[in-house]
Amino acid sequence: MIDPDEPLLEHGSDSRSRPTAALDVRRRIQRLAEGQPYAVLCTQGDGQPYGSLVAFAFSESLEQAVFATPITTRKYRLLSACEHVALVVDDRPEHSADLMEIEGVTVTGRAVEIERGEEFDRWASLLVARHRYLEKFVTATSCALFRIDVIRCFHVTRFQEVREWVPTS
After folding, report:
1. pTM of this prediction?
2. 165 Cβ contact list (under 8 Å, min separation 6)
3. Domain tally for the chain?
C-alpha cells in the first residue's frame, strides 16, 4: 500500500510500471541489503533530523527490516515518538575512489517496536544470524528490537539516477 505521506517520483522514473525494470531494481536493492552490514537510520524529533548507524537485517521479501537499540538512547526515544523513518544503505566502502560507481538505497517506512515473545524471537534470530556478535545485546532486557515496515525504496546509481521500488504486498 502506498502511503500518502511519501513523495512520488516524477512520471517515468517509477519502475513499478515496467516489470523487468522493477525486478532489476529489486535485485540491486537486495544485493545492497545482503552485502552491506550497516546502514544509517534516519529519525526525527523536536524539529531536528538525526542519523544513527545500525546493524540491520532484511526479510527475504525486502518488505521489512530489523535493528536493535538500547532503550536508554535518544534513538529509542525518537522512535517511540515518531514511527516515520528512513534507512540508508550504500556501498561506499567498495567504491571509495569513484563517486559515480557508488550505489545506494533509501528505504522509507514505519518503525514498530517488537514486543518480547514469538515475533521478537523470530526477528532477533534473523538479526543475530547476520550479526553473530549482537546475540547478547539483542537478548538483553535493556535492548529493544524494531521492525521497519517498508513503504518505498529509492535506489540511486551514478550519483543522480533514481529509481523507485515498492513492495507488492
Report:
1. 0.84
2. 15, 16, 22, 25, 26, 29, 152, 153, 155
3. 1
